[in-house]
Design brief:
Blueprint (H helix, E strand, L loop, with lengths): L1 E3 L3 H13 L4 E3 L16 E3 L6 H6 L9 E3 L6 H6 L6 E4 L2 E3 L6 E3 L3 E4 L3 H10 L4 E3 L2 H25 L6 H24 L5 H14 L14 H11 L4 H8 L3
Helix pairs in contact: 5-6, 6-8
């Protein structure tokens, strides 16, 4: 497998593959780009942050851009389309790496959709990480679900100075009210129906796999900012979300 991005996930995948004897080529900002001067047809994981997606994808040779597998978090579909990458494989990662080159914690199966989805699923399974292939509509559900986790657990945790694992035990009522609002915005924007208790249960179990993850509001435009913009555009009130954002330190 070839991957671009030597952050926590990229370096941790490299460490895991080395331990398992699996080939893995990691491209960083300055080295490894010659690996993309090959014939198209094999997947390339793009593991950079959302803010670096534009610059990183622009460095990929045009004949290999269709092989990119985008795993950035957040509601990024319109952004991906603006970059001309809408036909690329997408992935929603339900895993985390706390440090560069460290252990990978899998909270659920990574979800993939697109032309290279099945091949990437097999690769994840070959390194003992759970994954599944879904259709594009189902991916929308997981994209919204993961973004709700990023927006809700991190916001409540950041406001109260808690790691994500303490959000449900200590602020469960506020979290439930917040997720209710975010689901309403997501439903109005995407048409996805997601039952509240089902989503809360799944995301609480995901959080249990990474309880000490530090909470923080990041990539605002594609997470909390997306809910702000869509709530205003669609006229869906989000008073709990607005009040919590106003309390951020």
């Amino acid at each position: 497998m070839i991957a671009i991005g030597a952050g926590r996930v990229g370096t941790s995948l490299a460490t895991r593959c080395a331990a398992l004897g699996r080939p893995f080529t990691l491209i960083d900002r300055s080295t490894g780009w010659e690996a993309l001067e090959t014939e198209p047809g094999r997947p390339v994981l793009l593991l950079v942050g959302t803010g670096d997606l534009d610059a990183a994808s622009a460095r990929v040779p045009p004949h290999r851009r269709g092989d990119l597998v985008l795993v950035q978090n957040g509601m990024i579909r319109s952004y991906v389309a603006d970059l001309g990458l809408q036909r690329c494989t997408r992935g929603i990662l339900y895993l985390a790496a706390a440090t560069r080159g460290g252990s990978i914690l899998a909270g659920d199966r990574t979800v993939l959709s697109g032309p290279h989805a099945e091949e990437v699923e097999r690769w994840f399974r070959s390194i003992d990480l759970p994954a599944r292939t879904v259709d594009w509509l189902r991916l929308t559900w997981y994209e919204l679900e993961k973004t709700i986790w990023l927006a809700a657990w991190n916001l409540v945790g950041a406001v109260h100075g808690k790691v994500v694992g303490r959000v449900v035990p200590e602020h469960g009522d506020a979290l439930r009210a917040l997720v209710t609002e975010l689901l309403a915005v997501g439903r109005a924007s995407t048409g996805v129906e997601a039952p509240l208790d089902f989503v809360l249960d799944r995301l609480t179990r995901y959080t249990a796999a990474i309880p000490d993850w530090p909470a923080g509001v990041r990539d605002f435009a594609f997470r909390n900012g997306w809910f702000v913009a869509e709530s205003r555009r669609l006229g869906v009130p989000t008073p709990v979300h607005d009040a919590l954002l106003a309390r951020l330190p």
